[in-house]
What does this fold into?
Amino acid sequence: MLTALADAPRHGYAIVQEVLTISGGQVRLRTGTLYTALDRLLQQGLVHVHAEEVVGGRLRRSYALTDTGRSTLVAETERLSLTVREAQRRLALPRFPASRASRPPGQPFGPGTVTA
Amino acid sequence: MTASDRAPEPRLLRLYPARYRNLHGPEIAAVHAQATAGLTGLPLLREHSDLAAHALRLRTRLSSTDPAGRIAAGAAPFALAGAAGLSLLLVVVLAPDILSGGLGPGLTALAAVDNLPWIAALACALTGRWTPARMLSLLATAVKTVLLIIATWPSPTTWRWLIPLGEGAHVLWFSVALGVLVVLAPPDLVDVARQRNRRVIGAAALLGAPLTVALGYLLGHNVGPGSLSYLLLYCWPGLLPATAVLVLLTRPRPDPLRTVGIGLTALPWAVVFSDDSQLTVHHIAAATTLACAPLAGAALLAAVVRIARARTVPQPSDPA
It folds into this structure.
C-alpha cells in the first residue's frame, strides 16, 4: 500500500486498483482489509489524510505518504534491492556441482564418475 | 453517475461503531459499492464478510490498532503452537491404543476429529498460510467447545462417551482459551514470514517432545509435587514464551503489548496437566506460580541486561 501511494495521493478504491496493478493481478484488497490497513498506517504515522472532497454527495478522502512513510518505503525498497542484487549475483555464478544432481542412483562419487 | 453514487449505504455499515461510521462510513460505502459492482455468489459473500469482520473488530476493540488486538496478535503464534503441541501429545499418548485397535473405530475417529484440526492448523502456519491456519483453528476451537459443553453439562448425558480421551474439562478449557486467542488475533498483525514460521516449528517441538517424555514418566511413576517431572511439566511450557519475552524486552524499542500477549500464553498451561482431584485453589496457585516463574525470570534478566547496557553506553566527552 505504501508503494501504491508513493507517486501520488489516492482515495480508497484507487488504492485497491493500484495494488491490483502493482501485484500483477495477484492481490485484490477487499474493503474491510483496505480500511484495516489504512487505520494501522494512519495510527503508525506512515500515511495521512491528504484531502477530503464531496463526490456525488458523498465524502471521499484521499491518502498520501507522510515523510516517515516515505522513508520507511525507501528503507524497505533498499532492503529488497539488496536481496535482489545478491540473488542475481549468485544466479550468475556457475552451478556447482551440476554433476551430482544428474548422478545415477547407486553410482559412487569419485574419479571417472563425473558426467559432462 | 458512478456505481458509488447510485449504491445505497450497505446495511453492514450499521455494524460499525457510531463514531467510526460517522467518520469513515460514506467513503467505506463508496469503496464497497465500487468493489462489489458486478459481483455475485462467493466473491460477493467474501466482500461482505470482510467488511463485517472489520466492523466487528472495531466494535469489539480487537482491531490491529487496539491494545487488545495487539496483545492477541502477539499471543497467536504461541497459542497455536501450544494447542497444536498438546494435540500432538494426545495423539502420541493415544497412539499405542489406536495402533493395537484397543480404542475402537468410534473413538479413533473421535480422536482424529478432536486433534487433527489443530495439527493441520500448525502445518498451515508452518508453511506461511495464516488464513487456513486461522480457519482450522476456528474449527478446532469449535470441536473443543462442543466437547467442553458435554464435559461440563450439569446432568449426565448420553454424549459423555465422547470424553474418555484423556481430556478433562480443564484440558478442554486450555484448548478453547488458546484457540480463542488465535481466532481473535487481527490477521494483518500476525507475521507468518519464514523466520517466524521456524520459531513456531521450534515452539511445537520444544513443547511437544519433552512434555511427552515428562508426562509418560509422570503417569508411569505417579510422582508428586517437588519431583523433577512435576516441575518440568509446569515450568517447561513457560520457557518458550519466556525466551521470546526476554528477546523482546532486551530490544532497543520493546513492544509491551506484544510481550504481554506472548506471556499470556504461558498461563493456560497451569491447569492442563492436573487431574480433576488436583484442581484446588492451592494447587492452581502453585501451578500458576510454576508456569509464570520462567516469565518472571525472563523479565528480571531483561531488566538486568537493560541496566547493564545503559551503564556501558559511552558518555559524551566534555568539550571543555
In short: Chain B has twelve helices and no strands. Residues 1-30 of chain B form one domain.
